[in-house]
């Protein structure tokens, strides 16, 4: 017997040693996968910061590949030229710059300004060459290849726009008015026609006489138009972009995957028109490859307003003092590097989980339990597979919302910051606001009073009513009384609250009328409008506090005790009161515990009656945290703050529920 046991023990040690060796090997592979993930993750971005600074928020930029000159327009009315990342000239205007075009043949910079002017500067030294007053706010600009014509899109008011063409000396050659907003404008290659895109999603070709000769429907507002290699490109409000030639034939199109719901603002391409880059108002950047597949997404932290191709690079700027560089040669490998990074991350997670499980299997006692658990799961695998859809649905419709609320409690989610792209992590600011604004603390004081009185109400009258009905002789009478106590449950809670609102009415309310009838006019009050009585009026709503659910729970508890115990106690000389107090009441403690828990949870969550009766007033006399949460969601649009309130209420509810369950268990 001992010899056999020794062999089993020896065999067990061998198995454990195998588990240990495999666990160590798997964990080593997991560590290698982590380092691989870090390495490839570092190669999933082709964006780097440049040393160019303007000292202001930037609005637009353009690059001349021949002279290697970058021109940046800012919101502080400056236009600045950089060469080899060094500033070579700076010019001040009287308005922010909206768009810049460089014509190398003329060595001229054309800049549209929000002060209604088109400025022409020397590319070399920034000397002002010409100033054209368009008398309208300029939103888009393009220059013909030979530099002899300038096309601009302007806006007047909210829905009036003009497509204008000027000669290089400022002579107006064409003016086409529109009652829609124009998002972009461009010359055709021959410089004889222009193409515009508007907020109706239309691309329109216009000849030199101002006549529309062709059109195309994109179905979404056109936000910007740029040159894309030999063709043109527009980006639309939905994140879609369209490449097209001079005759509006579509050469490429795609829509970015925008899970963050970022507000699209700008578009750019590399010099060959292969890669497309889309920027958003919140700072998200979406990069598409030549096959119009999204290969990279990042957040640069500030709104992206413009791109400029520069050889093997793309310059990018926006609502901040930054100019970043997208390295085109690195973009070709981003897709495979991103895939490898994700695969290695998942492999690392699986390896660590598997390694930890194997280590647990190696522990003698834990290993036995783990193997037993694994065998049971495998034996009942069909049941677990059938339950899996239920768990998935519970997660999606119940726990997923709770998880999102916990996460967004630490963000500035609001009516204006209503997308993932606009949300920012703000730490504990929402929780600090709870204690600095004061409404939450006032609400907690009222809530504590409601919790205490709610527990008292559920432990008194419903218990007594259930015991009295249980003690009635005759099943018919019990049925009638039980039916009458439960009948009010069919009345909606809103109707009950409105009824009590009329009872408390200071002019025609039943309560004041009864006081007048018995000669106690001095006790009449504006019950819901007086700060001293409003909270008590809410508490006494529902008098005499016979909750149908509590009544049924207690009544079921009394039925479950059985008559034998009562009869035995009666034979021993116990009175009905003694039987109730010393036998029946202790035996329905589980039901009492359930009702206390449900009352605490319900009181924490309930604000309907208070909202109907007083709206939280007068002042904050009846204010509660649940009402604060509702108002911040429904009226104030402070969703992140409401999530923080929900988290605190959840934790507080869980705490008092656990304390109640602990105390009840100890008493039991």
- Please summarize the sheet with the most strands: 4 strands, antiparallel
**Beta-strand level of the residues, as a percent range?**
25-35%
Which percent range fits the helix content?
A: 40-55%
Strands of the largest sheet, in order across it?
Answer: 1-28-27-26
CATH topology title of the largest domain: Methylamine Dehydrogenase, Chain H
Number of strands: 28
Which CATH-level-2 architecture of the largest domain?
7 Propeller
How large, in whole angstroms, is the Cα Rg?
37 Å
Q: Could you characterize the architecture of this molecule?
A:
- The chain is built from 19 helices and 28 strands.
- The two termini are 47 Å apart.
- The chain folds into three domains: 2-39 and 338-379; 47-332, YVTN repeat-like/Quinoprotein amine dehydrogenase (Methylamine Dehydrogenase, Chain H, 7 Propeller), CATH 2.130.10.10; 440-556 and 589-636 and 649-667, MetI-like (MetI-like fold), CATH 1.10.3720.10.
- The protein is 44% helix and 25% strand.
- The longest helix has 40 residues, at 2-41.
Task: Give a summary of the structure in a few sentences.
By secondary structure, the protein is of the alpha+beta class.
Write the layout of secondary structure elements.
Layout: H1 2-41, E1 47-49, E2 58-64, E3 69-74, E4 78-83, E5 86-92, E6 97-103, E7 108-113, E8 117-122, E9 128-133, E10 137-143, E11 149-156, E12 160-167, E13 172-178, E14 182-187, E15 194-198, E16 202-206, E17 212-217, E18 222-228, E19 231-236, E20 240-244, E21 250-255, E22 264-269, E23 276-280, E24 284-288, E25 294-299, E26 304-310, E27 313-318, E28 323-327, H2 328-331, H3 334-362, H4 364-379, H5 381-408, H6 429-437, H7 439-459, H8 461-471, H9 475-486, H10 493-503, H11 510-517, H12 534-539, H13 548-561, H14 563-571, H15 576-587, H16 589-605, H17 608-613, H18 625-634, H19 639-667
Antiparallel strand pairs: 1-28, 2-3, 3-4, 4-5, 6-7, 7-8, 8-9, 10-11, 11-12, 12-13, 14-15, 15-16, 16-17, 18-19, 19-20, 20-21, 22-23, 23-24, 24-25, 26-27, 27-28
Helix pairs in contact: 1-3, 3-4, 6-19, 7-16, 8-13, 13-16, 14-15, 16-19, 18-19
